[in-house]
Design goal:
The structure is a single chain. By secondary structure, this protein is α+β, with helices and mostly antiparallel strands. It is about 20% helix and about 35% strand. The chain is built from two helices and six strands, in the order ββαββββα. Strands 3-4-5-6 form a four-stranded antiparallel β-sheet, with helices on one face. α1 packs across α2. It starts with a strand and ends in an 11-residue tail after the last helix.
């Protein structure tokens, strides 16, 4: 993710995980969420294991275990990065993905009003 520096502050542009965060706030406001960078390790031939900080959206509801979601830029879709659905894609549309996230966590959801 690209960052820019503005008067000594690092600012990240609004991205796909921010869109999902806002969509979950609208349709499942009781879901607890945080954006955080987590260490991901990758095996690279001839170099070994390399650690990289990747942005994830952490979501949870009530006593259920927190789960992570990431944006897969190659597939242009959200993907579960932990939990029982690990590796499964969510819809690329943030509103549709937010409904699926809320339902997967067992939170009450309200579909977004239709446009038109």
């Amino acid at each position: 993710m690209m960052t820019t520096e503005l008067s000594g502050l690092q600012v990240e542009p609004f991205g796909p995980l921010d869109e999902l965060y806002a969509a979950v706030r609208r349709c499942a406001p009781q879901v607890a969420m945080t954006r955080a960078r987590v260490s991901e390790e990758y095996g690279i031939p001839k170099l070994g294991t390399v650690g990289v900080l990747e942005l994830r959206l952490h979501v949870s509801y009530r006593g259920r275990q927190a789960r992570r979601i990431r944006w897969d830029g190659e597939a242009d879709a959200y993907v579960w990065a932990s939990g029982p659905d690990y590796g499964r894609q969510l819809p690329a549309d943030p509103e549709q993905a937010a409904l699926r996230v809320g339902r997967a966590l067992g939170a009450p959801v309200s579909p977004a009003p239709s446009k038109g």
